[in-house]
Specification:
By secondary structure, the protein is mainly alpha-helical. Helices cover 57% and strands 5% of the residues.
Length: 361
Amino acid sequence: MEISEPSSFQLGQQCLKEGDVVAAVKHLEAAMAEPQGLTLDGHLLMAEALWQQAGSGGTATALPHYEAALKLAREAGDSSKEAAVSLGHGFALLQLGRGLEARETLRRAHALAEEDKNPAAMNFIDGLLKQAEAAMSPQEQSVATWQQFAAAFTHKRPVLFMRGNAKSPGDEASALGVLKLREAGVKSLKVVDVWASGPEVPEGLQTLSNFEVPFPQLFVQGASVENWTELPAEELTSLLKDNGVLMSEPGEKKPEEPGCHGSFSEGLQPWEVVLVELVSKQGAKDWGPKLQELQERGLEEVPSDVLELEEAWARLSPIVKEKLEKQPEMPCGHSCNTCPTKHDCQLHDAVGHVRDIEDLL
C-alpha cells in the first residue's frame, strides 16, 4: 500500500501541535506558495503560528490571515465560520491595542452569533466589546460616533461619504475615490458631502468630519467597506452591483451630459437640469418613470430610489422658483416670458406661483 507524503499544511499543523512554531510557519509559508494556496483553516493556522512566534504581545502580521479567512468564509456563505473567525480577529485587534477596529469586528461577530442564536458567544463578545471601547483613544471614539451615524444612515442603500461632491471633490483622497468608482463602472450612487450642512450630516458630526474622520468612506448595507479604494475594479464592481448600485454594462459608452448652456443651469448638477426638464413636460408626479429615465441616461449622482428623487425635487423646487422669477435664459435661448410653448409648460405649477413680468403690469 502506497503511503502519500504529508502536505505542507499537514506538516505545519503537526509542528504547531508539537510546539515547534518556527517550523510550523516555514511549512505554512510553503503551503502558501503552492498553486492552491492556503485554505480558510490554513490561514487561521498561520495566524495562530505567527501569534505564538511573536510571544504574548502578538503581531500585526497575523491580521492579513484573519482577513483572508474572513473573505473565504463569506464567499462560502458559512456564517458560523465567519462568526468564529471574526471573534478571533477582533480579539487579536484588541490585544494589539486597536480598539476601534476591534470594536467593529467584534460587533460583526456579535451579530452573527445572534443570528445563530448562540447566547454564550454573545455574552463573551459583549465582554470583549467593553474592553475594546475602553481601549479606544478620543479620536477613535470620534470615529466610532461617526460610524454609528453612517451605519444607521446607510442600512438600506449604498452611500459614498466624501468631502465635496462627485463633480467637485474637496480633497485629493475624495477625488481618487470618485475616480475609483468611475473606473468600476458606477452610473448612479448616493453621495453625501460631509462638508455640507443639512439633515444628512448633523452639525455635531460635521465637526468630526472636518478634522478627525478619514474620507472618502463607502458604506454598503450599513457597514463600511474597508480599503475599498484598493480593491481591484472587478471586485468593487461586483460588490456594488450585488448591492443594487446601477452599473455600466461592459463596453457601454458613457452618455454625454445634457447640453444645457443657458444661465438657468448655473449651480445645478446635470441630472438636476434633466429633472427640471422632465417636470416641465410631465409635472411633479409619476416619479418612477422619471427616475428610470435619469438612470438610463447614465448621469452621475442620480438618486437611488423614488423617495429620494421626490426629496430631491422638494429641495430643488424653491431654487427653481427663484431662478424662474429672474427670467433666466433657458437652453433654447428663450426666457419663460418669451417662450412660445410656455402655456404647455408645467414647471410653474410644479414650483408654485412664480412672479413674472405679467404680474407686474
